[in-house]
Amino acid sequence: MNEQVILIEPVPGTMLAESKDEARRFRTQKILPALERGDSVALDFALVGFATQSYVHALISEAIRRYKDDIYDRLTFRSCTKEVQEVVLTVFQYTMAAADAAAGLRPDIVNDDLT
Amino acid sequence: MYAWRFGLAEYLGIDPPANVSEHEEAGRFVPLRTIKTADDLTKLLSDIVTLLHVDKESSKAVMYAMSEMVRNTLEHSRTRDGAVVCAQSYAGDRGRRYVSIGVADTGIGIRLSLGSNHPTLTDRAALIEAIKPGVSGAQQGPFGSSDNAGAGLFITRRLSQATDGYFAVGSGDALFRTSKAAVRPSDDRLVIDISRFGGTLVCVEIGLDHEGDFAGTFAEARAAFSSQLTTAGIEVSKRVRFS
């Protein structure tokens, strides 16, 4: 299995990754095609200090939804600060919960709007 | 006078009604400006640290909130006029410093932006829905869109509260604002009636001298988020691979 490495870049002059256009481009042009080929993907956050939830959601939520538990072995995160890790974990947590709910595995979602 | 100093006259292209004593902008505020594109937002985010003179750690929550709130406008308001934004750094109680940011638009407002995914009868009900996690008009199901999760308002509010800040969002004839009371009222009791405003306005106050770092602050927001999602929780932290 090959590994595709994607370098995440921040807003110029800052340490923040927030461009959803860029996230969407990475998702549609690199991440999902690589996973479809059977490759793994490494997202390298070495240049980034923190990222918005919207950015990380646009980057990885579709991959989590499509590949569910397999994604843990095929998507890795390099050089993440604690801030980036927190955002990544947040997106994983609610996307997995929503995917399970959609599959009827988790009827225990509290928010009525999520059921 | 305050609004004129914030650049209201220049923004509107009119003469101010009185002489305004202008001080150096850096270290004080970001004057009114319009953000219509992602490039405008990039420029704003690049300018914030310089204009507000906040340190890098403190600037994280400020930039985070600004990005999320402006992107909400760009993606959901359906206005060609963009978002009008401003920000200010100031000393609050006991010398603690805060940054307050304001974002407003003249778009369709929250009630209409939630659309058919979350039909609501009133602006008040729409506001309560919008601050819940996972509620967005731009998605097909719970956290179901590839581009939107409906989490921006919820997390930004929690970030603000974690730093002892104030958060408010208004649209139509309703305004939600957080409480700093020791025993916090339920959200539905924090909505008040206002004079009708067709678009959406958001105020986010961030405390700069928060004891924890941004990661800790975000962890608090994540915990609040998780508590709204499931009764049992999903343990992802041991499975996601960081290296």
Strand order of the largest sheet of chain B: 1-2-3-5-4
Summarize model confidence as the mean pLDDT of chain B. 84
Percent of sequence in beta strands of chain A: 15-25%
- Helix/strand-derived category of chain B reads alpha+beta
- The secondary-structure class of chain A comes to alpha/beta
N-to-C order of helices and strands of chain A = EEHEEHHEH
> Which two chains touch over the largest interface?
A-B, 57 and 54 residues
Helix content of chain A: 40-55%
Strand content of chain B: 15-25%
N/C terminus separation of chain A: 37 Å
Write the element-wise H/E pattern of chain B from the N-terminal end onward.
HHEHHEEHHHEEHE
Largest sheet of chain A: 3 strands, parallel
Polypeptide structure, described:
The complex is a heterodimer of chains A (115) and B (243). Chain A is an alpha/beta fold and 115 residues long. Chain A has helices at residues 20-36, 53-67, 71-74, 82-102; strands at 3-7, 16-17, 40-44, 50-51, 75-78. A three-stranded parallel beta sheet of chain A has the order 1-3-5. With 243 residues, chain B is α+β, with helices and mostly antiparallel strands. Chain B has helices spanning 2-5, 8-12, 38-52, 56-76, 109-114, 123-130, 152-162, 214-229; strands spanning 29-35, 83-91, 97-105, 167-177, 191-207, 241-242. In chain B, strand 2 and strand 3 form a beta hairpin. In chain B, helix 3 packs antiparallel against helix 4. The model of chain B has no long low-confidence stretch (mean pLDDT 84). The chains are: A alpha/beta (115), B alpha+beta (243).
Short description:
The complex is a heterodimer of chains A (about 120) and B (about 240). Chain A is about 50% helix and about 15% strand.
Question: How are the SSEs ordered, and which strands pair?
Answer:
The complex is a heterodimer of chains A (115) and B (243).
Chain A: E1 3-7, E2 16-17, H1 20-36, E3 40-44, E4 50-51, H2 53-67, H3 71-74, E5 75-78, H4 82-102
Chain B: H1 2-5, H2 8-12, E1 29-35, H3 38-52, H4 56-76, E2 83-91, E3 97-105, H5 109-114, H6 123-130, H7 152-162, E4 167-177, E5 191-207, H8 214-229, E6 241-242
Antiparallel strand pairs in B: 1-2, 2-3, 3-5, 4-5
